[in-house]
Design goal:
alpha/beta
Length: about 400
């Protein structure tokens, strides 16, 4: 299918399927902002509520040729920004007035913080009974560990995930991306949409509780169940427990990852390798046999790959119907025409007037297409407009500024 065919019925100038939804994003670092980013990318009006002068998220390095942080630009695009110090007297009333027109409140402060500021679920529900209030934290709103702060690598260590990651003979290794944050953010966005579906059907709002620990355990391929049942999983490094051969293999100019998942793929590989005598031989013909003989089959594939350059090896394997890819870095992935065609990089004008290729949206909608509509705003860039929408005239806004509320 050509791209134009997929989008032939798309609505012009439509922000996405969540157009008309308003989210108050009172979050920091990555997990909460990621949840807000997903909703904003899909067309929701996401208002990022930030402390005045907020520099959180302005982590180095700056995007080359710009003054803007890669961190903030990655996760806060498609949002508006309101400067509001929730610690100040009178700030809670400003926030609750914003709740009047909001569908979702999203926060990821330590449990109890929003309540102390007078903007917890109870306060927002009194203002708007059908509000969907999403709380994202390290360990949830209840339980013996609920008060603990949770950072991504700590949660990776705490859940058992880190213990399984790394080479077979090495030590635990954290994920290079913010895995627990990302998964919790996705579950928070999904939880918000599920609660909105219930609200639309019944008129009832609710409190949605998402824990980073829960999200990472849920996405752990059932290993928590295995461990609880008395069969804890082992570390496999770059191999897999279920199929063989499946590994990283050295080529003349780099590395490839190859998975021979099916018996017919194994037979096709033996043709490539000139070893058809092993196509159905004992210890080779079936995956169950290859698992028990993984060192021999792994060595055979390694020898074949070592005699080819990586591009040639991938081409021959793919032509034979075998799943394979070169091991690339992110710079190579960014240069892939497939990445550009799928708009996974979108050239976007930033707040300082420069342009940078921001990561695009993952889900494609044929009728209501999504994209990066605007870069991350400067902190407080939309304060006046948002307060005016909430009914504060210029004099009232000036008084709020004099008191340091905004």
């Amino acid at each position: 299918m050509e791209r134009a065919e997929f989008f032939r019925d798309s609505l012009p100038d439509h922000p996405g399927p969540l157009a008309g939804l308003r989210v108050l994003d009172v979050s920091k670092v990555w997990s909460g902002p990621m949840a807000g980013c997903v909703l904003a990318d899909m067309g929701a009006d996401v208002v990022r509520v930030e402390m005045p002068g907020n520099r959180e998220g302005e982590l180095p390095p700056a995007l080359p040729g710009t003054t803007r942080s890669w961190f903030r630009e990655s996760v806060n695009r498609n949002k508006r920004s309101l400067s509001l110090d929730l610690r100040k007297d009178g700030a809670a009333e400003v926030f609750l007035r914003l709740v009047d027109s909001a569908d979702v409140v999203l926060e990821n402060y330590l449990p109890g913080t929003m309540e102390r500021w007078g903007v917890g679920y109870r306060h927002c529900r009194e203002r708007r009974p059908d509000i969907v209030y999403v709380s994202l934290s390290g360990y949830g709103q209840y339980g013996p560990g609920a008060g603990r702060p949770g950072y991504d690598p700590v949660v990776q260590a705490d859940t058992g995930w880190m213990a399984l990651n790394g080479t077979c003979g090495g030590g635990p290794v954290r994920a290079p991306t913010f895995l627990a944050d990302d998964l919790a953010g996705l579950h928070a966005a999904l939880g918000a949409l599920a609660a909105l579906r219930h609200r639309d059907a019944t008129g009832e709002g609710q409190h949605v509780d998402v824990a980073m620990q829960d999200a990472l355990l849920f996405q752990s391929a059932g290993y928590l169940t295995l461990a609880a049942a008395g069969a804890p999983p082992r570390r496999w490094g770059n191999q897999t427990e279920f199929v063989a051969p499946s590994n990283i293999y050295d080529c003349a100019d780099g590395q490839v990852y190859v998975t021979v998942a099916l018996d017919r793929q194994w037979r096709r590989f033996t043709e490539l390798a000139g070893r058809t005598d092993l196509a159905r031989a004992p210890g080779y013909g079936r995956n169950t046999e290859r698992l028990a003989n993984r060192h021999a089959v792994d060595r055979l594939l390694a020898e074949w790959c070592g005699a080819h350059d990586s591009h040639e090896a991938v081409r021959k394997l793919q032509e034979a119907g075998i799943t394979a890819a070169r091991v690339r870095d992110y710079a190579e992935a960014a240069a892939d025409p497939q990445v550009r065609e799928r708009e996974m990089l979108v050239d976007t004008e930033l707040a300082d007037g420069s342009t940078a290729p921001l990561t695009g949206t993952a889900v494609k909608f044929s009728r209501t297409p999504t994209t990066v509509r605007r870069a991350a705003p400067l902190p407080g860039a939309d304060t006046d407009a948002l307060l005016a929408e909430a009914g504060y005239d210029s004099a009232a806004r000036a008084r709020l500024r004099e008191r340091g509320v905004v």
